[in-house]
Amino acid sequence: MKTATRNITRFIQWSAFAELPLPRGYLWPTLLRPVSCRQSLFARKPGGPQAFSSIQKHRDGLVAAENPAPEHLPTGTPTARQLPLSCPGCGAPSQTVAPDEAGYYSKTRSAVRVFLSDRVRAEDAVFNTAVSQASDGTLAHLGLIGKATGAEQDVEPQVPICDRCHNLVHHHVGVPIFHPSIKSIEDIIAESPHMHNHIFHVLDAADFPMSLIPNLQHALKLPRQRTQNRRSKSQVHGRGRIAEVTFIITRSDLLAPKKEQVDRLMPYLQEVLREALGRTGRNVRLGNVRCVSSKRGWWTKEVKEAIWTRGGAGWMVGKVNVGKSNLFEVVFPKGRNQDVNFDKLRHAAGQQEPYSPDPTTVQSPSSFGSSDLPGDFDVGEQLASEDMREPEAETLDTEKPEDHMFDEDEDASLLPPAQLETAYPVMPTISSLPGTTASPIRVPFGNGRGELIDLPGLARTTLDTYVQPEHKSDLVMRSRVTPVQQVINPGQSLLLGGGLIRITPTTPDLVFLAYAFTPLQSHVTSTVKALAMQAGERAVNVPSVAEESAREKMISAGTFELSWDVTKQRAGPLTSPSVTKFRVANLPFVVYAADILVEGVGWIEIVAQMRSKPGKNLSSDMGESETLESSNAHKQYPEIEVFSPEGKFIGIRKPMNAWLLGGKQVVPVHKRKARPRRSMASMKGRNG
Asked: Of 130, 170, 179, which Cα lies nearest the Cα of 150?
């Protein structure tokens, strides 16, 4: 227990240094785990996970006492199962003590009772015994010839998830856990047992790039990204390991309705990301940016193949509610465990004819034993010689990458043990609740080829605190929104969520156009009425999702300028070379635009048109370059002011022109006007 005490002391020192409250114990379950119970990665016994605490041993004893093995069952009946070491949905250690905490298993739940019960396996054993004693005629009459029995299949039931994950999936009810700090994530990744480590920095497309973790390379002590210098190294070793970073923009189907349109947005996304990275992103190549959609399957296959080919450890790092667990499910390489090729074994044993199963003499793979082979036959040497004769192109996919496995020493306490490797494991729980993942979830693949690790999300500021509980699910944009063009005249404001967000133009005598790409309801009204609605002094038919406490904290988040020129995109046929020969610089107007971001919700595209002021109106004594610089200095951009709770959750970025990509809004069928009746005037004239 000296190591556990030292780890707790070190953790308390970190928390005191960061002036943060101590988190709950289930976030770092291995702090109290004895050294003798720690196992190296992929070196676990096939008998199942072992208990790592006195609570686990006590629980296992209760389960075994409540489910004794019946005496009338045949010999060889398996003993009672134990609960998994940790919940495969959230990663919290399994426990039966605190029902309100993560990882709690209720033994009265159906899935848990089936998993712990021996009734199903006992019935299989009775059935297999009866089938083995039946004649061929009886089996043919029952249709069991050529079918594998339950003993031969040996299918284990699915590992159940904890009660908290069950309530999140089926009832959308749950309590978020404590969010770890970036220092804790660094300590977890530093204890990786793999030499090759790939970090997936997951970003959300709904409020891109507000979900970016600033200075991630420096915070995790990773090598710098590859610069545009042609001599820049593609791989950098640090601390005896290789660490690479890839930016994954999830939910890209929210940006455009078609995959080709999202692909054409990649230069724009790289430019916005470069600006968000600041000074460190000026000379970075940013060839490691991927835009995927788990819902539509865009570019998920490429990421999955890269994970399989690379091997090693893949870490999902990002803030809460950016889609890490959803991405984990679609990019994890399932069903790729390399099994034994029994055809090769039979061919090597002397069966020159191709194997074709006979319904009357069918044999399961488990019944093919070593007694069918010659005495001096070595299976490993024969398989190795046959693999050497195969073409090199066919062996590339099955060849394991050169990933050196480090031993998990006694100091590796923040990283829980990996799950038992299966072809189709239980994936992490997907929920809109911030902080669903409680502890790192390690899922291995490829018979030791590598593992994918889902980490808890870092804390981020969201509007959840100021939204009514019944409307918190309305903040999540689950599908792309096709907004309605709303005109904001002078003296008017745009309200989102019935007063949760207010956008008021400050440039007088100018008309603004707004396109709200948010799940919140938008409403244009006069500024006087908007102030009364935000203060709760005016009763209107527009429902409000804000709480009473949010009305007292509404302050200005700042004044933003629409400083990006989108005249060429908005001018339409005026600048088309096939229609006219007008140049953008010769037009008498300029169109400015910007995207106002609402963190965790979406964005609002704001557009305004102003009269252009050519440089010829300035002093003719100045040179051409001085005229251009002075014209930009004296240029006045349209301005808007945004109000939000505490003046937070608001950002700005270069406009994407998403309204032009999505087109006009399609009117639903139930809102379409009925076709008018046909006029009977002509029919009356004919009937005369």
From this structure: 130
